[in-house]
Amino acid sequence: MNKKTKEIIDKLYTTSSLSEPEYLDLIEGRTGEAEEYLRSLAVSVRKKHYGNKVFIRGLIEISNYCKNDCLYCGIRRSNRMCDRYRLTKDDILSCADTGYALGFRTFVMQGGEDPYYTDETMCDIIAEIKRRYPECAVTLSLGERSRESYKRLFEAGADRYLLRHETADSNHYSSLHPKELTLENRIKCLHELKEIGFQTGCGFMVGSPYQTKENIAKDLKFIEEFSPEMCGIGPFIPHKDTPFRDFTAGDAELTCYLLSIVRLAVPTVLLPATTALGSILEGGRELGILSGANVVMPNLSPEDTREKYSLYNNKLSTGAESAEKLILLKEKIASIGYEIVTERGDAIRK
């Protein structure tokens, strides 16, 4: 590790802020020694705020219908090979009942942008989950909606909303999405979610097609300035039935390096070790935790739908990624010195 890289890491550790060129220097200065130093500081920061706790979220993938046609996504509208499904209210509540009995205190309802799930439908489901389990948090990841829609979902009882910004560069954004989707609207949605009162999450793919180091530096600066309560960063993994099928997957080690950077830039952030990280690298989820992450999201979806929610090739949904194998997950996390806890795990507000 050269002197300049160490000085930048130390600055980030003490100020939680860098310029965009400094983030770029940090990316370009990545060595094994820099990774280890950055990781040690990230772990010290996460332990300062959250100790050895790792929070679990019960993931319920409610639908693989999507009106959008994003070029990287396996459930894109034009993928005729996708075996479509959507869960009913009773299906979702059954998942929540199972999750609660297993110890989950946050439920994450994630899906494509499916018009079936109107505000009325979603508000009804959210309200019933909160009625049954008032001490639990409800997180939504349902894409771009109107401000009024977000407001109604929040008033129904939803606590958190995940909406990855995907990339903070408008040209790069347009290379990943159809023309009707814009970075401007995505950022607008994120700010509206925060203004309404949601604990809000953004994030991006590492190694997505056409991504440059300058793009990543811009992403990191955006995350620092937006200061989300949650941030999802995982490696790009191609899907066989998309236009990006032949692109190379993202780098797991770089992903972990960036997790450490985000932990220092937003010290109290809730930072998942994503399913994609575990899918692309054996032990990837544990490496994410050791890099500063503090959230894992086992799958609570009905077993017969898990393989159908195929965003990318070889997505994990069994073993320690499944809610039913929570004991196995606890053992894996304990083996690296951390503890799975059954509590809501809200972000620490600044």
Number of alpha- plus pi-helical segments: 13
Strand content: 5-15%
Please state the overall shape, judged from the principal axes of the Cα atoms: globular
Might you state the CATH topology name? TIM Barrel
The pLDDT mean sits at 94
Ends: how far apart? 32 Å
Quick one: CATH class? Alpha Beta
What is the total number of structural domains? Answer: 1
Number of strands: 9
Give the low-confidence spans.
Answer: none
Structural class: alpha/beta
* Main β sheet profile: 6 strands, parallel
**Proportion in helices:** 40-55%
Assign the CATH superfamily: Aldolase class I
Overall radius of gyration: 19 Å
What is the helix/strand order? HHHEEHEHEHEHHEHEHHHEHE
> Strands across the major sheet, in which order?
2-3-4-5-6-7
> What is the CATH architecture term?
Alpha-Beta Barrel
Structural write-up:
The chain is of the alpha/beta class and 350 residues long. The protein has one domain (3-341): Aldolase class I (TIM Barrel), CATH 3.20.20. It is built from 13 helices and 9 strands. It has helices at residues 3-15, 20-28, 32-50, 89-102, 119-132, 147-156, 170-176, 183-196, 213-226, 252-265, 275-280, 284-289, 326-334, and strands spanning 53-56, 58-63, 106-111, 137-141, 160-162, 199-206, 230-235, 295-296, 339-341. A 6-stranded parallel beta sheet has the order 2-3-4-5-6-7. The model has no long low-confidence stretch (mean pLDDT 94).
